[in-house]
Amino acid sequence: MTDDELLRYSRHILLEEIGIEGQARIRASRMLVVGAGGLGSPVAMYLASAGVGQITLADPDDVDLTNLQRQILHTTQRIGQAKAVSGAAALHALNPQVAVLPLIERLDTARLAELVAAHDMVLDCCDNFATRHAVNRACVVASKPLVSGAAIRFDGQVSVFDTRSEQAPCYHCLFPEGEDVEEVRCAVMGVFAPMTGIVGTIQAAEALKLAAGVGSSLASRLLLIEGKSMRFTEIAVPRDPGCAVCAPLR
């Protein structure tokens, strides 16, 4: 670790639980962020500021004026630019020591399998169930931890799905694919801007803890956030022994 890195990350290094060894593990980690929007913005910024070695930022969309109320990676000047490229510019300005790979593509099954296998963990910051389930399947097959978040209206939720543990559930255990689950989007229902920041920051914290080997994760727990009253509720999430996604690989 260089003198500049020791200074930049000194407040992490001062934490006994992290220290130089934990910061070095963060520096060596490779993280895939799926989505560079409301959740992906704080996620990517905190991963970059904390010194994650490589961040792959995947998003097929362009920056739109309606994004700027909550998507803090982007600026008015970058409206019309690909979100992945805009996000990479913001992260480079924040911390040029971090390698950022922007991917302007909608990830299909084969591409996800390739990318997930090449990273240490995945942060799901997307806004649709189809992508969430595809990401989950790739993480289960590759045995990589998945940090998942969602926010809509004034509410948010965060969990970690880490099937490296025999008893930990996958995303499909909690939200089985094919069930009649209402899919709501910010464009229709709206979202309280700071809620994406709260959820995304917790996602980043979980990823950095996993990378540094600190504390216990939200695996097997779902954290629910009710923004209007600012109440946090935690519920246990058991593994489904009959899960169509993770059970065959246990």
Summarize the structure.
This protein has ten helices and eight strands. By secondary structure, the chain is α/β, with parallel strands linked by helices.
Characterize the structure shown:
With 250 residues, this protein is an alpha/beta fold. It has one domain (3-249): NAD(P)-binding Rossmann-like Domain (Rossmann fold), CATH 3.40.50. The chain contains ten helices and eight strands. It has helices spanning 3-8, 10-13, 19-28, 40-50, 83-94, 109-117, 129-142, 171-174, 186-189, 193-212; strands at 30-34, 54-58, 99-103, 121-124, 146-152, 155-161, 221-226, 231-236. An eight-stranded mixed sheet has the order 3-2-1-4-5-6-7-8, with helices on both faces. Strand 4, helix 7 and strand 5 form a beta-alpha-beta unit. The radius of gyration is 17 Å and the shape is globular. It starts with a helix and ends in a 14-residue tail after the last strand. The relative contact order is 0.15. The model has no long low-confidence stretch (mean pLDDT 95).
